[in-house]
Amino acid sequence: MIEMNFIKYLTFKYKLTRHKSNKSKRDVIAEWIGIFILCLSATAVLYFIVNALSEDIQSHMNTYIVGLFAFLCLISISSATKAFYKEYFLSPEREILLVAPIKNSQIILARFFIVAIEVLLINAAFLLPFTLANYFAGNLAIEIVWLTIPQIIAGSIFFSALAHVLYATAFLISKGKGLKTVAFSIMTLASVGVIGVIVYASNYKRYLLNQNEWVDKMFYLLLQYPEYLLENSIELKSLALSSMVILLQALGTIPLIYLLTDHCYKKGLLTISLRDLDESFYSNKASTFIHKYIRNHFIKKDLLYVLRTPKLFSVYVSPFLFTSVIEFKNHFASSGITLTILINVFTLFMTTVTLNILLSDDKDHQDLLFSIPFDYQQLYKMRSRIVHIISFLLSGSYLLIVMVLENVELQFIIYGIVQLFILTFLSSKVILSRIMKRNAKKYHGYKYNGEIVKPLFYYLFVWNIPLLIVFSILHEYLRRIIENQSLSIQAAIILILTIMIIIGMIVKSNKTTLKQEVNRLWQT
């Protein structure tokens, strides 16, 4: 049997996955020309925006690019992880490869570079136009722009390697059972480790910036580019040398990744069933408990779905990580009224994430939910309760730790927890009722179509911003009471009115009634 070589496999892969199977060479060339023109347009738009900024902001633009680079590193990890999962377990040729005349080495290399290319496209789409725009605006040296190109290529290879290490480690731990859950859990633990370093190791930044020799050599690929950005200058000799080193360091990961992945192939990575893949190693006992003790079918359905979601913990890492980084630098929790703003924004993040998890199940089974009769009001009541409890427990635990670490006074900690409880209660009810009302009215039955942005904007402007103002007033009067031990009559009246407004909003949100639209399918 003639074996398929590397190029033939990539051609075969392209024919399977391209959107239009009858594309001509002219169509492909036209598509690439369109992408090139789009990149030039993005660069031009960014140039005009950057050029319109003040000189003070433009003088710090290299620092902002370092921030963009750091953000893209986080995005690259997530993108590489998702691309690996899609390429290995959801690709159309997955079963064909078990019998196709192709070596494992060809499959490993092809998939490695397919993941790398996906990461490369994301980085190139954001980093290249931004650096080019700043070069034309006179904020960056041309050598930095040239260095950006090998940096993007090397970074893409590195993050593809990181995704392979992640899944290989998860496979060796799980033996294929619940691989997806284990992989996401490892990524979550790593992210929590980053948060722990940021929160507890106050000298972590100084350790990296001191250019420790071991750290400098190990992570040259990631650390050298930001250093040149901050200096905003590099000699041609250093440019050539740095480009060569980061590319060699990235390419040096390929043999190691190949050996590790090949070992996993021999252990059965290619033959994992989708059932074993999605199996949750922690959900069996929890599912038994839910079936035994939870009687309400709506609560049971949502809890089982949440527990069986492989990315249960990982989806909450982003708001935790982002908030930790911002809080570490600014100390909002211990800076007076900014505590109210922190709680307000963080609560909205957590409620949205929790709602999105639960509603994704409705979207996946929208036709089934549309075709069967059930009590809308009961679903709304039970689901809003679950969202409220989950959001309050998670955000409350995190913010309580932050406030304790920053030595916030006990009175303000209690105030913060009460504010958090009220905000999670209101946001869970208002956003969910808005979503369900819109969908029931549109389809004459419950059929969630994934639209969550408009209800979020409604809650933000009609509820969230007024609540922010009201709780800011409460925070200020609480501070006055603690400092002066008394309030003037005018201040006391305003305080009472503010509390009455909050009570009124709670009562209003609690009176939400969903009209039971009659689905025509029920009548047949």
TrEMBL record:
UniProt keyword Thylakoid present: no
InterPro entries from the UniProt entry: ABC2_memb-like
The entry's keywords: Membrane, Transmembrane, Transmembrane helix
Residue ranges of the TM segments: 28-50, 62-85, 106-132, 144-170, 182-201, 239-260, 305-326, 332-359, 386-406, 412-435, 456-475, 487-507
Taxonomic superkingdom: Bacteria
Record carries keyword Acyltransferase: no
UniProt-listed NCBIfam families: elici_assc_perm
UniProt name for this protein: Uncharacterized protein
Origin organism lineage: Bacteria, Bacillati, Bacillota, Bacilli, Bacillales
